[in-house]
């Protein structure tokens, strides 16, 4: 039995979170649910929390259809939740962090901003396996296939745990009862939606999300997802990239001196 933390960035009441937790329970894993008390989309891997006297508010929750599963609403984002879980906030640290099922796709390099991805990466950074799972609901969905996305995530878990601890994958699922299959894919240059400044007032700004006008680059996660495939992309929590920065000449350390004594 694998100990699994289920979290998200859409909040403790999100249907995708509950579907993912139910799928993990049905697969006979030991499940803990801990999610933001409120919507935290776009939180990335932020560890900022609503604190009072240095305390992070955590409320125990009973979740419908998840009898016996410990549930916690946290006044903080998903990255923070994955971090404090790794330090024993909800009992023994989890072996796997399942983050989602997110309301909307997380593809391309724009996943940098995703709280769903941020939680999985934070779990990986702290020694767990991580899956960020998102459902491509589009802008105006009529139906939500949360259970289909959750089942995909759990089906990939045996593949994931054959990899070294700390391995993290980002998974996107079409909003359909089934898919064409699963494709490993690189990240698109950006994504399939963009955030724009829609309103500028004297004392406020408003952002909006809209579809990108261009066709996704072939062979990327955005393109495969648009063609009806489940996409899987490997992510590194922290990756060192050699820069080739020129070394500075070695400098001679100054000679040590003793303070002059006074008589």
TrEMBL record:
Keyword Nucleotide-binding carried by entry: yes
EC numbers, comma separated: 3.1.3.5
Alphabetical keyword list: Cytoplasm, Hydrolase, Metal-binding, Nucleotide-binding
GO molecular function: 3'-nucleotidase activity; 5'-nucleotidase activity; exopolyphosphatase activity; metal ion binding; nucleotide binding
Family: Belongs to the SurE nucleotidase family.
Annotated Pfam families: SurE
Disordered: annotated span: 241-263
Low complexity: compositionally biased ranges: 248-263
InterPro entries assigned: SurE, SurE-like_Pase/nucleotidase, SurE-like_sf
Name recorded for this polypeptide: 5'-nucleotidase
Reactions listed under catalytic activity: a ribonucleoside 5'-phosphate + H2O = a ribonucleoside + phosphate
Residue span(s) of domain Survival protein SurE-like phosphatase/nucleotidase: 4-178
């Amino acid at each position: 039995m694998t100990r699994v933390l289920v979290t998200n960035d859409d909040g403790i009441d999100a249907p995708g979170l509950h579907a993912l937790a139910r799928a993990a329970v049905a697969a006979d894993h030991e499940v803990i649910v801990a999610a933001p008390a409120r919507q935290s989309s776009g939180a990335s891997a932020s560890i900022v929390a609503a604190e009072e006297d240095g305390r992070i508010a955590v409320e125990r929750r009973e979740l419908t259809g998840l009898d016996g599963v410990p549930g916690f609403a946290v006044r903080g984002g998903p990255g923070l939740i994955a971090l404090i879980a790794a330090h024993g906030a909800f009992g023994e640290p989890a072996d796997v962090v399942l983050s989602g099922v997110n309301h909307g796709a997380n593809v391309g390099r724009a996943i940098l901003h995703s709280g769903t991805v941020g939680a999985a990466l934070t779990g990986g950074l702290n020694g767990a396996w991580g899956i960020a799972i998102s459902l491509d609901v589009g802008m105006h969905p009529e139906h939500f296939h949360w259970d289909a996305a959750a089942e995909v995530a759990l089906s990939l878990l045996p593949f994931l745990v054959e990899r070294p601890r700390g391995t993290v994958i980002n998974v996107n699922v079409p909003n359909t009862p089934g898919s064409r299959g699963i494709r490993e894919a690189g990240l698109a240059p950006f994504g399939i939606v963009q955030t724009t400044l829609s309103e500028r007032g004297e004392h406020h700004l408003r952002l909006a999300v809209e579809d990108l006008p261009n066709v996704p680059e072939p062979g990327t996660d955005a393109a495969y997802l648009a063609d009806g495939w489940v996409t899987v992309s490997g992510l590194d929590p922290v990756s060192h990239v050699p820069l080739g920065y020129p070394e500075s000449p070695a400098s001679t350390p100054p000679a040590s001196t003793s303070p002059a004594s006074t008589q």
